[in-house]
Amino acid sequence: MAKSKLTEVELKVKNFTPPEINHAFQRTVSYSQFSMYSTCPHQWYLSYVENKQPYQASIHTVFGTSFHETLQEYINTMYNESGAAADKMDLEALFTERFREVYKREYEKTGEHFSTPFEMRSFFDDGIAILSWIKARRNKLFTIRKVKLLGIELPLLVGINRNVFLKGFIDFILYDTELNKVYIYDIKTSTRGW
User: Fold this and answer.
1) Where is average pLDDT lowest: 8-12, 71-75, 79-83, 140-144?
2) Which of 22-26, 45-49, 85-89 has the highest average model confidence (pLDDT)?
3) In terms of C-beta density within 10 A (0-12 exposed, 13-18 middle, 19 or more buried), how is residue 103 classed?
4) 189 vs 194: CA distance, rounded Å
5) Neighbouring residues of 128: CB distance < 8 A, sequence distance ≥ 6
6) In terms of pTM, does the model score above 0.85?
7) Burial of 124 by CB count in 10 Å (0-12 exposed, 13-18 middle, 19+ buried)?
8) In this structure, how many other beta carbons lie within 10 angstroms of the beta carbon of residue 95?
9) What distance in Å separates the CA atoms of residue 165 and residue 38, rounded to the nearest whole number?
10) What SS3 state is found at 19?
Protein backbone atom coordinates (compact mmCIF):
# COMPACT_ATOMS: atom_id res chain seq x y z
CA MET A 1 0.00 0.00 0.00
CA ALA A 2 1.42 3.39 -1.03
CA LYS A 3 1.87 6.03 1.65
CA SER A 4 -0.28 9.10 1.23
CA LYS A 5 1.46 12.40 0.54
CA LEU A 6 1.79 14.78 3.42
CA THR A 7 -0.52 17.76 3.23
CA GLU A 8 0.81 21.31 3.35
CA VAL A 9 -0.30 21.62 7.00
CA GLU A 10 1.46 18.39 7.98
CA LEU A 11 4.64 19.50 6.24
CA LYS A 12 4.59 22.86 8.04
CA VAL A 13 4.24 21.20 11.44
CA LYS A 14 6.72 18.43 10.66
CA ASN A 15 9.34 20.87 9.37
CA PHE A 16 8.76 23.57 11.98
CA THR A 17 11.87 24.70 13.78
CA PRO A 18 11.60 27.35 16.50
CA PRO A 19 13.72 30.44 15.85
CA GLU A 20 17.22 30.37 17.30
CA ILE A 21 17.81 32.48 20.37
CA ASN A 22 20.95 34.58 20.65
CA HIS A 23 21.57 34.01 24.37
CA ALA A 24 23.95 36.97 24.55
CA PHE A 25 21.06 39.35 23.87
CA GLN A 26 17.83 37.38 24.06
CA ARG A 27 16.11 35.41 26.80
CA THR A 28 13.28 32.90 27.03
CA VAL A 29 10.71 32.86 29.81
CA SER A 30 8.02 30.35 30.73
CA TYR A 31 4.38 31.29 31.07
CA SER A 32 4.81 31.06 34.88
CA GLN A 33 7.66 33.56 34.78
CA PHE A 34 5.75 35.88 32.44
CA SER A 35 2.66 35.72 34.64
CA MET A 36 4.68 36.44 37.79
CA TYR A 37 6.47 39.36 36.12
CA SER A 38 3.15 40.80 34.91
CA THR A 39 1.79 40.66 38.47
CA CYS A 40 4.91 41.74 40.37
CA PRO A 41 8.25 42.43 38.63
CA HIS A 42 10.03 42.57 42.01
CA GLN A 43 8.82 39.08 42.95
CA TRP A 44 10.04 37.85 39.56
CA TYR A 45 13.44 39.47 40.15
CA LEU A 46 13.79 37.88 43.59
CA SER A 47 12.73 34.46 42.30
CA TYR A 48 14.52 34.23 38.97
CA VAL A 49 17.46 36.61 39.19
CA GLU A 50 18.35 36.47 42.89
CA ASN A 51 17.17 32.82 43.26
CA LYS A 52 15.65 33.65 46.64
CA GLN A 53 12.60 31.45 46.14
CA PRO A 54 13.78 27.87 46.67
CA TYR A 55 12.38 25.10 44.51
CA GLN A 56 9.27 23.59 46.06
CA ALA A 57 7.97 20.24 44.92
CA SER A 58 4.23 19.71 45.13
CA ILE A 59 1.66 17.01 44.65
CA HIS A 60 0.11 19.27 41.98
CA THR A 61 3.28 19.01 39.87
CA VAL A 62 3.44 15.25 40.37
CA PHE A 63 -0.20 14.83 39.39
CA GLY A 64 -0.02 17.19 36.40
CA THR A 65 3.14 15.67 34.92
CA SER A 66 1.94 12.09 35.48
CA PHE A 67 -1.45 12.82 33.98
CA HIS A 68 0.02 14.62 30.94
CA GLU A 69 2.44 11.79 30.19
CA THR A 70 -0.25 9.11 30.55
CA LEU A 71 -2.84 10.89 28.42
CA GLN A 72 -0.27 11.78 25.76
CA GLU A 73 0.80 8.13 25.48
CA TYR A 74 -2.87 7.14 25.14
CA ILE A 75 -3.40 9.76 22.39
CA ASN A 76 -0.22 8.67 20.62
CA THR A 77 -1.35 5.03 20.63
CA MET A 78 -4.84 5.98 19.45
CA TYR A 79 -3.63 7.92 16.41
CA ASN A 80 -0.44 6.04 15.51
CA GLU A 81 -1.73 2.50 16.11
CA SER A 82 -5.51 2.33 16.51
CA GLY A 83 -8.42 3.12 18.77
CA ALA A 84 -8.61 -0.57 19.65
CA ALA A 85 -4.96 -0.57 20.75
CA ALA A 86 -5.60 2.53 22.88
CA ASP A 87 -8.64 0.86 24.45
CA LYS A 88 -6.51 -2.14 25.41
CA MET A 89 -4.02 0.04 27.29
CA ASP A 90 -3.95 -0.34 31.06
CA LEU A 91 -4.10 3.37 31.87
CA GLU A 92 -4.23 2.69 35.61
CA ALA A 93 -0.92 0.80 35.50
CA LEU A 94 0.65 3.44 33.25
CA PHE A 95 -0.53 6.31 35.48
CA THR A 96 0.65 4.43 38.59
CA GLU A 97 4.12 4.00 37.08
CA ARG A 98 4.33 7.66 36.03
CA PHE A 99 3.01 8.89 39.39
CA ARG A 100 5.68 6.92 41.26
CA GLU A 101 8.49 8.01 38.91
CA VAL A 102 7.60 11.70 39.06
CA TYR A 103 7.17 11.65 42.85
CA LYS A 104 10.55 9.96 43.21
CA ARG A 105 12.23 12.56 40.95
CA GLU A 106 10.69 15.43 42.92
CA TYR A 107 11.62 13.79 46.23
CA GLU A 108 15.25 13.43 45.07
CA LYS A 109 15.37 17.16 44.19
CA THR A 110 14.17 18.27 47.62
CA GLY A 111 15.34 15.44 49.85
CA GLU A 112 12.05 15.41 51.75
CA HIS A 113 8.49 14.19 51.41
CA PHE A 114 6.14 16.98 50.39
CA SER A 115 2.79 15.21 50.55
CA THR A 116 0.87 12.98 52.92
CA PRO A 117 -0.30 9.47 52.04
CA PHE A 118 -3.91 10.69 52.24
CA GLU A 119 -3.27 13.57 49.83
CA MET A 120 -1.34 11.33 47.43
CA ARG A 121 -4.17 8.77 47.42
CA SER A 122 -6.73 11.50 46.75
CA PHE A 123 -4.80 12.88 43.76
CA PHE A 124 -4.05 9.39 42.47
CA ASP A 125 -7.71 8.35 42.66
CA ASP A 126 -8.74 11.53 40.83
CA GLY A 127 -6.26 10.75 38.05
CA ILE A 128 -7.60 7.21 37.64
CA ALA A 129 -11.21 8.48 37.62
CA ILE A 130 -10.45 11.11 34.96
CA LEU A 131 -8.57 8.65 32.74
CA SER A 132 -11.40 6.10 33.06
CA TRP A 133 -13.93 8.81 32.16
CA ILE A 134 -11.90 9.80 29.06
CA LYS A 135 -11.38 6.19 27.98
CA ALA A 136 -15.11 5.41 28.30
CA ARG A 137 -15.92 8.42 26.09
CA ARG A 138 -13.05 8.12 23.62
CA ASN A 139 -15.31 7.96 20.57
CA LYS A 140 -17.16 11.13 21.60
CA LEU A 141 -14.04 13.08 22.59
CA PHE A 142 -11.66 12.07 19.80
CA THR A 143 -12.45 10.99 16.29
CA ILE A 144 -9.87 8.93 14.44
CA ARG A 145 -11.61 9.03 11.08
CA LYS A 146 -9.71 11.41 8.77
CA VAL A 147 -7.88 12.94 11.74
CA LYS A 148 -4.12 12.72 12.19
CA LEU A 149 -1.90 13.37 15.16
CA LEU A 150 0.58 16.06 14.09
CA GLY A 151 2.64 16.00 17.25
CA ILE A 152 2.96 15.81 21.01
CA GLU A 153 4.90 18.30 23.15
CA LEU A 154 5.69 20.53 20.20
CA PRO A 155 7.89 23.53 21.03
CA LEU A 156 6.32 26.97 21.02
CA LEU A 157 8.37 30.16 20.95
CA VAL A 158 6.62 33.52 20.69
CA GLY A 159 8.33 36.90 20.75
CA ILE A 160 7.12 39.21 23.50
CA ASN A 161 9.55 41.85 22.29
CA ARG A 162 12.89 41.83 20.42
CA ASN A 163 14.80 40.34 23.33
CA VAL A 164 12.29 38.22 25.25
CA PHE A 165 10.51 35.09 24.00
CA LEU A 166 7.74 33.12 25.68
CA LYS A 167 8.76 29.46 25.58
CA GLY A 168 6.43 26.54 26.07
CA PHE A 169 5.16 23.30 24.62
CA ILE A 170 1.88 22.38 22.95
CA ASP A 171 0.47 19.24 24.54
CA PHE A 172 -0.78 17.77 21.27
CA ILE A 173 -2.08 18.84 17.87
CA LEU A 174 -4.65 17.03 15.73
CA TYR A 175 -5.35 17.72 12.06
CA ASP A 176 -8.71 17.02 10.40
CA THR A 177 -7.77 16.23 6.80
CA GLU A 178 -11.36 16.46 5.58
CA LEU A 179 -12.10 19.88 7.10
CA ASN A 180 -8.48 21.10 6.75
CA LYS A 181 -8.56 22.24 10.39
CA VAL A 182 -5.92 22.08 13.08
CA TYR A 183 -6.93 21.49 16.70
CA ILE A 184 -4.51 22.49 19.45
CA TYR A 185 -4.97 20.75 22.81
CA ASP A 186 -3.72 22.06 26.12
CA ILE A 187 -4.27 19.55 28.91
CA LYS A 188 -5.30 21.29 32.11
CA THR A 189 -5.36 19.75 35.53
CA SER A 190 -7.08 21.65 38.29
CA THR A 191 -8.03 21.39 41.94
CA ARG A 192 -11.36 23.03 41.04
CA GLY A 193 -12.77 20.03 39.23
CA TRP A 194 -12.57 18.52 35.78
Assistant:
1) 8-12
2) 85-89
3) buried
4) 7
5) 91, 92, 95
6) no
7) buried
8) 23
9) 14
10) coil
